[in-house]
TrEMBL record:
Molecular-function GO terms, alphabetical: cholate 7-alpha-dehydrogenase (NAD+) activity
Span of domain Ketoreductase: 15-194
A cellular component term, taken from the record's GO annotations: cytosol
CDD domains xrefs: SDR_c
Family of the protein in this entry: Belongs to the short-chain dehydrogenases/reductases (SDR) family.
Record protein name field: NAD(P)-dependent dehydrogenase (Short-subunit alcohol dehydrogenase family)
Highest taxon in the source lineage: Bacteria
Length: 256
C-alpha cells in the first residue's frame, strides 16, 4: 500500500451519509465524525429545530450538511427523507440507522401500543429506510449500511424485553441484508454500544447508571465520541472486507 491509498482509508469525501437520530448523543457524534472525514451529512430526527441546529453545527465544522425532519416510525417520512437527500446531494452512499426508542415495560404491564411504537422505530424504520435508499445505494461505488444495535441484543434485564428483542431482531436483519446485498456491492454491518453517556442513559436512575458502568471492564461509561472510530471503520474503505458483522463497543462488559 502506498501513502495515497493509506491516506484514503478513512476518507469519506464525496460520499453522502444519512444519519437518523443524528441531532444528539451517539447520532450527533457520528454525524460530526462523518462530516470531519469529508462526507456530506443528512441529519434526520423528529424535531425540525433540532435538525436545523445540528446541520448548522456540522457546517460550522466545515462540512456539507442538511437537516431533514423525519420520524423513523412513519414510512412516508422515510421516502421523503430519501427524496430530499437525493435532490440535495444527488445520491446516497451510506445509511446509518441510529434512531431508537427505549421503551421499557415489565411483563404483566405491557401494551400493544408500546410494542408497536418501539418496533416501528427500532426495526421497521431501519428496514424500510434502507429499502427506500436501495436504488441509490446500488449506484454507489462504496455503499454501506450501519445499523446501531445495542449490547441489549446479547444481555437480558428486567423490563427491557421490548427494546432488547427489537435490537436483536435488527442484528438478525443486518446479517440478512449483508447476504442479500453483497452481490450488489453494499456492505452491511452493525455496531453494538455498551453504556454510553447520553440523554437516554441519563434518564435512568443514578444507581442503575453506576451499575452499568461498574459492569464494564473499564469501569466507566463511554463518551459518544468513542463510537466514531468503529463507525468510520465499518463505513469507509478501511472496512472494505467487513460485512455481516456486529462489532461490540462496550468497554469489555458483554459476556462472550
Amino acid at each position: 500500500m502506498d501513502r495515497a491509498a493509506f491516506d484514503q482509508l478513512f476518507d469519506m469525501s464525496d460520499r453522502t451519509v444519512i444519519v437518523t437520530g443524528g441531532t444528539r448523543g451517539i447520532g450527533l457524534a457520528l454525524s460530526e465524525g462523518f462530516a470531519l472525514s469529508g462526507a456530506r451529512v443528512v441529519v434526520a430526527s423528529r424535531k425540525p429545530d433540532a435538525c436545523a441546529a445540528a446541520a448548522a453545527h456540522l457546517r460550522s465544522l466545515g462540512g456539507e450538511a442538511i437537516g431533514v425532519p423525519a420520524h423513523l416510525g412513519a414510512v412516508d417520512d422515510l421516502a421523503a427523507l430519501v427524496d430530499r437527500t437525493v435532490s440535495e446531494f444527488g445520491g446516497i452512499d451510506v445509511v446509518v440507522n441510529n434512531a431508537a426508542n427505549a421503551l421499557a415495560q415489565p411483563f404483566g404491564s405491557m401494551t400493544v401500543d408500546a410494542w408497536n411504537k418501539s418496533y416501528s422505530v427500532n426495526l421497521q424504520g431501519p428496514v424500510f429506510l434502507v429499502q427506500h435508499a436501495l436504488p441509490y445505494l446500488t449506484q454507489s461505488p462504496a455503499a454501506a449500511v450501519l445499523n446501531m444495535v445495542s449490547v441489549g441484543a446479547f444481555n437480558f434485564a428486567p423490563s427491557l424485553s421490548i427494546y432488547a428483542s427489537g435490537k436483536a431482531a435488527l442484528m438478525s436483519v443486518t446479517r440478512s441484508m449483508a447476504a442479500e446485498f453483497a452481490p450488489l456491492g453494499i456492505r452491511v454491518n452493525a455496531l453494538a454500544p455498551g453504556p454510553v453517556d447520553t440523554d437516554m442513559m441519563r434518564n435512568n436512575p443514578q444507581e442503575a447508571v453506576d451499575a452499568m458502568a461498574a459492569n464494564t471492564l473499564m469501569r466507566r461509561l463511554a463518551s459518544p465520541d468513542e463510537m466514531i472510530g468503529t463507525a468510520l471503520l465499518l463505513c469507509s474503505r478501511a472496512g472494505s472486507y467487513i460485512t455481516g458483522q456486529v462489532v461490540i463497543v462496550d468497554g469489555g462488559g458483554t459476556p462472550r
